[in-house]
Amino acid sequence: MHATRRLTAAAAAVPLILFSAAPGASAAPFSVGADVLVSGPSTLTACPFGASADFAAAYDNTEVEPQVAVNPVNPDEMIGVTQQDRWPDGGARGLSSWITHDGGTSWAKLPDVPWSACQGGPTRFGRVTDPWVSYDKVGNAYFIGQPIDSAALGLSAISVTSLDRSTGTWRPPRIIQEDGGERGIFNDKVSITGDPTRPGHAYATWLRGTYPNDGRQHPVADLHSFAYRGMPMFSRTTDGGLTWSTPVPMRNSNNFFQGNQIAVGPDGTLYNVTANLFTGAGFNDNGVYVGVMTSRDAGLHWSAPARIAPIRTAQLVVPDDNFPIRAEDYLPDIAVDMTTGAIYVVWSDSLGTAVNKVVLAKSTDGGRHWSGPTAVATGGPGVQSYNHAIDVSDTGMVTLTYWDDRNNVLGDGVATTDVWLRHSHDGTLSWQPEQHLHGPFDHYAAPISYFAPGDPRGLFLGDYMGLETISGNSTIAFFTSTIADGADAHAVRLDHS
Predict the structure, then answer these.
(1) pLDDT tier at 212 (50, 70, 90 boundaries)?
(2) What residues have CB less than 8 Å from 370, skipping those under 6 apart?
(3) Where are the strands (E) in 342-404, listed by range?
(4) Which residues, in sequence order, are CB contacts of 451 under 8 Å at separation 6+?
(5) Which of 489, 464, 491 is nearest to 477 (CA)?
(6) Is the pTM of this model over 0.90?
(7) I need a labelling partner for 25 at 20 to 30 A (CA). Which of 62, 70, 141, 233 fits?
(8) Residue 431: is its pLDDT beyond 80?
(9) Contact 68, 122 (CB under 8 A)
(10) What distance in Å separates the CA atoms of residue 190 and residue 161, rounded to the nearest whole number?
C-alpha cells in the first residue's frame, strides 16, 4: 500500500534546483528560518467514534489540511490549525490548533474545541473537517470547522468559535448551520476571514449543496432536473464572534460554487473568490470558471460573479504510476494588497495542456477585469505544481508557495515532492529567484483519500496550505509533510531585508 512507503536515501540526496529571477528583478532572497515541527502525538487515537462500514481505522497521529493566521496587533502571535487523525473516506477525529507567542520559533497546542464526539462534542458528529483560522483588525481570533456524522454526505454542520483572551482557550463552538442530509443537502469547504478594516467583524462562507427551496416545493421534479446547485453561503459576526447572522446565500442560482474564500480590500470591499464547477443544465464546459463576487456593504449584498478565467485543471497524479493525488488544484486562493487594492488569485491549471501549473490572475480595478492567468511556478516542462498559497505584505511584497515534482525520479518507488517559494516586489511584474522551502518528501507516504474501498481518490495532505505575512517583509508558511505512514504539521518563518 502506498501509505507505507518511505523516503529513500537516493531521493533525499536529490540536488535542489534554484531558478533565476525574471529580468530586472532584485536578487535578494528570503532568509529561510528553521523548519519547526509543530504537531505532536495525537490524544484522540483511542476514540471509538467515527468509524464507517467501509473503514474501521483512521490515520493515527496524522495532521493534514493546515491553515495559519497572524495577529495584526501582536505579530509575534500566530495560530495554526489542521485536521487531526484523518479518516480514509473523509473528515477526521478532530481539529487541532497551535499557538506561538515568539514569532514562530516555538508552538504550543491549544486545548481542543468540542467539534466532534472524539473531542467532547455532540455524539451525532463522529467526525469533523475543513479547519480555517483568521484574525480581525483588533486581534480577535476566529476558528471554523465542519462537524459531520460520516463521509456519506449525511449530517453536516458549520461551527464557529473565537479565542477567549481571559482564559487563553477557545469559546464553546456555535453551530450556525446544520443539515441532516435529506434531499441531498450537505455543507462543504468552509473558510473564515477576519476583517482587517472593521473591528469585531469576521465572515464565514461555505458551499451548501441543495435544490431550489431545499427540494420541498417540487421534490420529485427537482430530483429529475438540472436544478441542483452549490450555493455560496455567508454568515458574519460584528461583535467579535459572540453572535453570528442567519446564513444566507450570496447567490441563489443553478451554479455550483466551490472553494469560496473571502478577502477584504483597503476600502472594506469584500471579494469572494470561487470555483464555479457547473452552470445551468448539468456539468458542461460553458460555465466552469474561477470567479469573484463583490460586496460593498460588509456582506449584506453581493454582485454577480465576474469571470476571471476558465478552469482547465487536469488530473494530478504521481508520474511514476499515475496514482491520483487529491490536492489543492482548481480551488483558488486570494490575496489583496492593502495599499494599492490590487487583487491576486492563484490556482492550478493545465492552460490547455496535460500538465497542471500554478497560475496567477491579477485585477487592479476592484475585480472587474483580470490579467492572466499566467503560469508562475517555474518547474519546467512536464513538471506539475499545486497546493498553492499567496499573500501580500503591508509593503506590497507578494509571496507565493507551491509544491512540485521536478525532482521526482521515475521508477524509484518514491513520489519525490518539494515545497517552493517565490516573491515579487513590483506587483508580480517580475519575480525574485525561486527558493527551496521544504523537502524532498515522499508523497506516497501521505494518507490516501478514498471514494470507497478499492476506489482511491488520491494521496491527501490537504485541499489547502497555510501562508500569511507577519509584518513588513516577513512571512510564515504552515504546511504538512509526510512521515513514514502519515503527516505532520510544519512552520517555517521567512524574513526579507
Answers:
(1) confident
(2) 306, 308, 309, 345, 361, 362, 363
(3) 343-349, 357-363, 371-375, 385-392, 398-404
(4) 89, 457
(5) 491
(6) yes
(7) 70
(8) yes
(9) no
(10) 13
